[in-house]
Amino acid sequence: MSDIADLSLIAVTKRFGGIAAVDAVDFEVAQGEFFSILGPSGCGKTTLMRMIAGFESPTSGDIRIRGVSMLAVPANKRPVNMVFQSLALFPMMSVGENIGYGLACAGVSGPEAAERIARILDRVGLSGFGPRAVTQLSGGQRQRVAIARCLVLEPTLVLLDEPLGALDLKLREHMKIELKQLQSAFNTTFMYITHDQSEALVMSDRVAVMNKGRFEQVGTPRELYHNPKTSFVAGFVGDANIWSGSAAGAIAGGTRLKLATGAEVTGMGTGIDDGVRAYLRPEAIALAGSLDELSALPNRFPGTVSTVLFDGAASTLVIDAAGFPPLRATLPQAGPLAGIEAGAAVAFGFTPEALKIFPA
Amino acid sequence: MANPKIMASARTLTSEGLGERLGLFLLITPAILWLGLLVILPHVEIGILSLSQRIAARVYTIGFGNYFEFLSEPIYWHTFARTALLSILVTAITLVISFPVALYIAKFAVGKSKPILFLMCLIPFWASELVRTLGWMMLLREAGVVSFLLQWAGIAGKPVEMLYSDGSLVLGLVYGGMLFMIVPLTNALESLENAQIEAGYDLGGTNFTVLRKIIIPHAMPGIVAGAIIVFMLTVGNFVTPVMLGGKNGLWFTEQIYSQFITRFNWPQGSAFGFMLLLLSTGIVWLGLRLTGQGFSETLRRT
After folding, report:
1. Cβ atoms within 10 A of the Cβ of A95, count?
2. Can you give the residue range of the structural domain that contains B260?
3. Which range (A33-42, A60-69, B53-62) has the least confidence?
4. Which residue segments constitute the domains of chain A, with CATH numbers given?
5. Scanning A271, B32, B68, B180, which has the fewest C-beta atoms within 10 Å of its C-beta?
6. Which of A101, A142, A159 is the best mutation test for B, with the most CBs of B within 10 A?
7. Mapping DSSP to helix (H, G, I), strand (E, B) and coil, where does residue B247 land?
């Protein structure tokens, strides 16, 4: 591993008209890292990726690959290859020709090209698929051809633009694991963009959450999930009950918060003013038959189950409680409450650390 | 479970089955009438006519004499070969000029400019071919606009005649064929995903590689369709060669015209007509074979 990052962006800005699609973004991606950019559509992540690939040029700032500025380098000369959202396999070429295209462009042909194509097909688990037409392949196989087409060129960086979007759910789950395995097997730096938090969290070493052209937070999936730095990250990454209210003052071990619906709870947050938003993950809510069982928690309230949303391990309860908006809590299927029905009385509680408070 | 075969055969006997058949019959009737009356019948007539030889006044026998006449008279087959070669040249030039235009309209023009550009290609075709050709004559004749501009700029010392040559003929035919090349090409290129072009560059391709390996193969059905249409129109064109071609720059359609109208030799004219049909069919077939495209495939994809 070298000291110089594979990819570094320095204050990269892209304006379309007066609007900054990408606004002073800085980050570095280390060699061999799986780095994701997670954000809603229109947040600028596609523009950012297209600038790295060379299809757009930044209004200001610098893009460096292994320390070399790429601004003057056209897309076809950058050591960067992209897996497109639509995959963009060439339909008039066979699988082998698709992979050989980049090699031919690089001046590799004949037996050496044939050998490299065979080797890469073998590594992505498609041995012997060379002569097949790309139209004969399944969704997952096409995916692997698209990745092989990039990896055969041994690029410094592979960009992936939501390549799993078109797949059905089962295959997507499978490809997530496969992509991660391919990336670690090839030890190539991957930069992945997606609006699907699960894709980003499962595969990435680090994730940048992007909103309105800026990075809200960069961190490991765990950091983002457990310690969101902004209100946007807390709401975008993972599921949460979102409450608005006002801060009622600091106490030992937290901040008192009065919800707009009436209840008073204790949470954690910094830089808090009058209008705040509080985020509480459904799985951070402890459930019990009675309030006494939750005596260790500063926040504990009685309520009634209004709906049971059964979804196997992801089952949740919707709880009505005085002073709260309807609240979702994960229902452990291994616990004593697994068989609870709508209408039953239930007690719920949570630690102050679990309730993240941000300025609204 | 009922046997579906029995069900199906039973249905054709019912009134519903009859109604379906009648509907289908009515739907294809115009096509059959069109093919029968306007395509097959005249060709059968011309075919028969081309095989009748005059041996004395109002006495005819059947034979290939009109075709032998075509082969034995050099001016006929010279014109024939000239028409074939120039038509291929015109088709090729039309393709080369139209391709960038179509590529620009299909892939680079954005927003409103796309329909406007398309309309600009279409507008000249609101005027008749005769008027368009006359327009070229005004530009190219000795006292025309181009000649005047050349003299004004000091490039030419005296009036320049640019009409009545193979050059002006090819120019006029290319102009007349362009729209019929641009439309199928634009259609074919519009279906090319931008990501494919970007992927072509991303994997290291130069402009030339992307054009040769991605854009042209994708546009191939459009290229073939456009080439067939332009070639057919060019081979069968009459007005443009008559008005823009030189005195010794005969076009084969002029030979057919003179046989029918000037000489009243309908059998000879019919034989020429058949030769022209064979020529265009043969060259289109050859073109399809050379480019590896199937005819039905081409028709289906454009």
Report:
1. 26
2. 64-301
3. B53-62
4. 7-230 (3.40.50.300), 239-359 (2.40.50.100)
5. A271
6. A101
7. coil
